[in-house]
Amino acid sequence: MTDAAIIVAAGRGTRAGGDIPKQWQPLAGRRVADWTIDAIRAAGLSPVVIVLHPEELDAPGLPADLIRVAGGATRDASVRAGLAALDPDRVENVLIHDVARPCVPVAVIEGVRRALQTAEAAAPGLPVTDALWVGADGAVAGIQPRDGLFRAQTPQGFRLAPLLAAHAAHPGGAADDVEVARHAGLSVTITPGHEDNLKITHPGDFTRAEKILRGQMDIRMGNGFDVHAFEEGDHVWLCGVKVAHDKALKGHSDADVGMHAVTDAIYGALAEGDIGRHFPPSDPQWKGAASHIFLRHAVQLAAEKGFRISNVDCTLICERPKIGPHAAAMQQVMAEIMGMEVARVSVKATTSERLGFTGREEGIAAIATAVLIA
Ligand SMILES: Nc1ccn([C@@H]2O[C@H](COP(=O)(O)OP(=O)(O)OP(=O)(O)O)[C@@H](O)[C@H]2O)c(=O)n1
Ligand SMILES: C[C@](O)(CO)[C@H](O)COP(=O)(O)O
């Protein structure tokens, strides 16, 4: 039995403004929804259902393992659609989260899951700390005691079977799933919420969320440098592309000097040494190996450590062959290997003005930079 998640993302975000619904608007270099999905997946919840507006069911760029479901006209209708996609024989608990809360700290999610070990329902809340007024016509008409009042957050967690029954019995129009659960008589434990777990509701909330996410980011940068000498041959491999040439590059593997520099930049950002440490040249199994094996390993290692590659930039240093005609293809191949957008992969070249070993056409050098973000 597993703990599943439902991310409700079918709303229109009318209060947030903008040309597109808030979940698809940019936030700290990605879309709001991308941050929310990553936060939920990082907590180890599985399966993850995402409830989308019927016209956005084929939204691009979402992880392939998400279960996509069409939502309804209200939040509770969307939650019911998400619940229907879960298998009660396999899912014990379900955590329901607003896509509009992209900065949810993992501790908030863990707090809910921990409480569900004994409670039938649990949700994060923050005690109200400001004085509360009742307003009328722009004036204070009364004071509302704040004792015992909480601001409700998500994810809200429940045993799946009782929550399904609670939603089936509810007349509709609930603000959240805690309201539905309580209507059915379930007891809901309050777990610690967090100020960072704001719900993007109005235009100014994007700036607040961006500050929080940028503050949480772990940004690493690495560089890589590699050189391979020429030998007799009729082509070279550069950044995954076979380029016809009147020489070949000499090396233990396929001698793809550009891909090696990028791979070393990723290892460098992770403080994980270089290719030679992970694929020793003394090991005969790597003789003639295609360099994408090394690059894939570095990318996998980054993912295991919780990093995604934000961008890479590689400069090839040679007089010949001319790189310009092949640069777009090189970027495409490298992006595919790394699972990145092509626009985040740069391959360019320079000569060394006929100076030094590259100038004398004795070999090719490559330098690369990679930025990783967790
Ligand atoms: N029919 C709806 C309405 C809301 N939601 C989701 O419920 C969450 C909380 O709702 P809210 O913040 O109010 O989002 P919107 O409904 O999109 O915003 P607005 O009310 O400003 O239009 C959001 O993640 C939203 O996508 C949903 O899945 N289906
Ligand atoms: C579910 C919720 O985020 C808990 O605070 C909140 O009730 C959603 O309210 P909205 O009016 O749909 O934004």
UniProtKB/TrEMBL annotation:
2-C-methyl-D-erythritol 2,4-cyclodiphosphate synthase domain ranges (all copies): 219-372
Residue(s) at site: Positions MEP for the nucleophilic attack: R146, K199
SUPFAM superfamilies: IpsF-like (SSF69765), Nucleotide-diphospho-sugar transferases (SSF53448)
Residues the record lists as binding a divalent metal cation: D226, H228, H260
UniProt xrefs under InterPro entries: IspD, IspD/F, IspD/TarI, ISPD_synthase_CS, MECDP_synthase, MECDP_synthase_CS, MECDP_synthase_sf, Nucleotide-diphossugar_trans
Cofactor: a divalent metal cation
Alphabetized UniProt keyword annotations: Isoprene biosynthesis, Lyase, Metal-binding, Multifunctional enzyme, Nucleotidyltransferase, Transferase
MF (Gene Ontology): 2-C-methyl-D-erythritol 2,4-cyclodiphosphate synthase activity; 2-C-methyl-D-erythritol 4-phosphate cytidylyltransferase activity; metal ion binding
Keyword check for Disulfide bond: no
Binding site for 4-CDP-2-C-methyl-D-erythritol 2-phosphate: D226, V227, H228, H252, S253, D274, I275, G276, T350, T351, S352, E353, F357, R360
Segments of this protein annotated with the region 2-C-methyl-D-erythritol 4-phosphate cytidylyltransferase: 1-219
Positions in coiled-coil regions: none
Pfam families registered for this protein in UniProt: IspD, YgbB
EC number of the protein: 2.7.7.60, 4.6.1.12
Site (Transition state stabilizer): R15, K22, H252, T351
Protein name from the UniProt record: Bifunctional enzyme IspD/IspF
Catalysed reactions listed for this entry: 2-C-methyl-D-erythritol 4-phosphate + CTP + H(+) = 4-CDP-2-C-methyl-D-erythritol + diphosphate; 4-CDP-2-C-methyl-D-erythritol 2-phosphate = 2-C-methyl-D-erythritol 2,4-cyclic diphosphate + CMP
Function of the molecule: Bifunctional enzyme that catalyzes the formation of 4-diphosphocytidyl-2-C-methyl-D-erythritol from CTP and 2-C-methyl-D-erythritol 4-phosphate (MEP) (IspD), and catalyzes the conversion of 4-diphosphocytidyl-2-C-methyl-D-erythritol 2-phosphate (CDP-ME2P) to 2-C-methyl-D-erythritol 2,4-cyclodiphosphate (ME-CPP) with a corresponding release of cytidine 5-monophosphate (CMP) (IspF).
Residue ranges, annotated region (2-C-methyl-D-erythritol 2,4-cyclodiphosphate synthase): 220-374
Superkingdom of this protein's organism: Bacteria
Family: In the N-terminal section; belongs to the IspD/TarI cytidylyltransferase family. IspD subfamily.
One annotated GO biological process: terpenoid biosynthetic process
